[in-house]
Structures are given as structure tokens and as C-alpha cells.
From TrEMBL:
Single GO molecular function: hydrolase activity
Pfam family, one: Lactamase_B
Keywords assigned by UniProt, alphabetized: Hydrolase
Keyword hit for Iron: no
Metallo-beta-lactamase domain span: 25-255
Organism: Streptomyces gardneri
Entry protein name: MBL fold hydrolase
């Protein structure tokens, strides 16, 4: 039986499992509108997840054919994976922020091998040792291409415009652009009185931006074609402050559980990143490449035990932090170094 939670005021959440992932599940939210139910996120593209989604809807007396629209917080496969299937079965529209729609298009249209070339070049540039890069080169040479889930994900047919109300009959749901975790991540503010009378201004579908017990991954926005240097961590911290100021009564995140104290959680996350940036600055007393920095940073296990793919994620996170420090004028690239090293100023 799919675990279904009623949040009141025509909002429910369904626990849709993510196979072989420590996160466990995505909370897919169902929002009742005058033109039919709308989903906020859909879950991972997998038969078990699809079964749980449809049986969860069934427990609410709904069929997937009745879904009127799909609002996606961000393009990651645990959120957008089943959107295409829902649209096929119901004719629902799919809405996403333009920056994440661009990621979906790029991923679908990429030439086979583009990703491996990009990762090889990028990892070399950040100082990854040859033994880390060699398997990627070998995969390319052997014609083993990327088989990540995003290759088949659905192209949205509606755009979520920041600051605007979504076109939902009888509901006030406003899009708040919260880049950081992805370039087009949005939170959705349900500007209606809390059904149980909790104090505050409405409720917030927070996607992965604000979770009660997890600090979301902030790496670089991976875009092989992009020349200008983005600052995802800076975007994320700004987005957190924006959410903190909304004064919402309750947060309905896409993982874990609903919680009330949004401002308190925002404060904790801001303090966590400040502490992390300070720690990095002391590591950068001597010049380090992003790879050397990642090796020295604190992770949830020793560096030696972190598998290959997770090291790529870790080094991307280290780079995002370095980029923030550079933007703040607290670190700089050492001229003439290759791979480039950074040092605190
Ligand atoms: Zn995500
Ligand atoms: Zn997620």
C-alpha cells in the first residue's frame, strides 16, 4: 500500500520509492483544482515507482487519466522521471522553469560520448589524478556511452515563470525561482490560509531546495556549452534567504517529511554553509586544486571509501565552494598554474 498523507485543504502526498537510493522515496504531492488534480513532481521512472504512484492515486479515488497538469520543481529524475508517462496516460500538461527545460533538451539531444568527453576534460582541469580519469577514457574508447535516466525524460510543454501564479483553477500557487540545486529549481508557494490554522503565510512545496534533515547537493551547473562562470552556491544561498522571508506556515518538501519552521531551517543551512566556507578557507592557506581540496574536505565517509561517481559529485561541490570564495574575494586562482590551484587571500 502506498503511503498517502492528507495535508488538508485539498493537498495530499504520496510516497513514491526511488529504487536503490538511500533517499528512499520522493513525496509526490497531489493538489486538487477546479479542473482536476495536479501533481507537484512525479517520481522516478521505474515500474515499482509507477505502481506506487498509481495505487496512491487510487487510494484517493483518482485515476492517473484524471491528472490535469504536472508541475515540476526541477529536472532531476526522482522528480521528473514519470512525467512523460503521466502525460501519455492523461494528456496532462507538464510545467518547468526554462533553465531546467534547457537541461532536459540538452541531455536528450547530446551526441553519444559528449558527456564522457566533457567529464574527462573537466576532471583533468580540476586536477583529478590519471587513475581517476582513465576509466572514463576507456569507456569512451570502448564505445560505452552514458546511460543516465535523463536521456529519455519528457520535454515540458509549459513554462513556469518566476513570480507568477500558475494557471490553476481555484488555487493560488505562485512560482518562486530558487536556483542552486539546479539552475531552474522552483519552489511553489500555495498562497492560501493553512487548513489547520498554523500561523504564517500559506504553504510551500519546496522540492529539494529546503529539506528538514538533508543539505541538498550544490555542485556546478554542468553545461558543456556554457562559457560564463555561474555561482550555484551563491544562487542557492540567495534563494534560501528569499524562501526564509516568505514566512510560510508549513513546508511540504519532496523528500523526508513536512515541517513548520522554515525560517529556522533556512538559518541552520546558511550557518552550515558559512562554516563550510570558513573551513575551506583554512584549507586554502596553501594553494590547492579543486581535487586536492575535495580530498581534504569533510564528507560523510573518508575519501578513500568514496566511490568513483560520488567523487565526481564531491569535486563539483568543492568547485562550487571555491567559486563562491572567489566571487566573495576571499580566494583567488594562482596565476600560471595548470591544473589551476586556488589560495585564500
Ligand atoms: Zn534534486
Ligand atoms: Zn530529489
Amino acid at each position: 500500500m502506498t503511503q498517502v498523507t492528507e495535508h488538508g485543504g485539498g493537498v495530499w502526498s504520496l510516497r513514491v520509492p526511488i529504487p536503490d537510493n538511500p533517499l528512499g522515496h520522493t513525496l509526490v504531492h497531489v493538489l486538487d483544482t477546479d479542473r482536476g488534480p495536479v501533481l507537484v513532481d512525479t517520481g522516478w521512472d521505474d515500474p515499482t515507482s509507477w505502481h506506487e504512484l498509481t495505487s496512491g492515486l487510487g487510494a484517493l479515488g483518482l485515476s492517473v487519466q484524471e491528472i490535469h497538469g504536472v508541475v515540476i520543481t526541477h529536472h532531476h529524475p526522482d522528480h521528473h522521471g514519470l512525467s512523460g508517462r503521466v502525460r501519455e496516460e492523461s494528456g496532462a500538461w507538464i510545467a518547468m522553469h526554462a533553465a531546467d527545460t534547457a537541461v532536459v533538451r540538452r541531455t536528450r539531444e547530446a551526441e553519444p560520448g559528449t558527456w564522457l568527453d566533457y567529464m574527462t576534460q573537466k576532471l583533468t582541469a580540476v586536477g583529478a589524478p590519471e587513475e581517476h580519469v582513465a576509466p572514463l577514457r576507456a569507456a569512451r574508447a570502448a564505445g560505452r556511452m552514458r546511460t543516465l535516466p535523463g536521456l529519455r525524460s519528457a520535454v515540458p510543454d509549459r513554462e513556469i515563470v518566476p513570480g507568477e501564479l500558475l494557471d490553476l483553477a481555484g488555487r493560488r500557487l505562485r512560482a518562486i525561482w530558487t536556483p542552486g540545486h539546479t539552475p531552474g529549481h522552483v519552489c511553489l508557494h500555495l498562497e492560501e490560509q493553512h487548513p489547520a490554522g498554523l500561523p504564517g503565510h500559506g504553504r510551500l512545496f519546496s522540492g529539494d531546495h529546503l529539506l528538514p534533515g538533508i543539505s541538498p547537493h550544490i555542485g556546478l551547473y554542468e553545461n558543456p556549452g556554457e562559457a560564463h562562470e555561474t555561482d550555484p552556491l551563491g544562487d542557492y544561498l540567495d534563494s534560501l534567504e528569499r524562501i526564509g522571508r516568505l514566512g510560510v506556515a508549513e513546508v511540504l518538501p519532496a523528500h523526508q517529511y513536512a515541517f513548520a519552521d522554515a525560517a529556522g531551517r533556512v538559518h541552520e543551512l546558511l550557518a552550515h554553509h558559512e562554516e563550510r566556507l570558513t573551513g575551506l578557507l583554512s584549507l586554502l592557506a596553501a594553494p590547492l586544486t579543486p581535487w586536492q581540496l575535495a580530498e581534504r574536505m569533510e564528507w560523510n565517509r573518508p575519501w578513500a571509501e568514496i566511490p568513483h561517481g560520488s567523487r565526481n559529485i564531491a569535486v563539483s561541490e568543492a568547485e562550487a565552494h571555491v567559486r563562491r570564495l572567489v566571487k566573495l574575494g576571499r580566494a583567488e586562482a594562482v596565476p600560471g598554474t595548470d591544473p589551476v590551484t586556488y589560495v585564500a587571500v
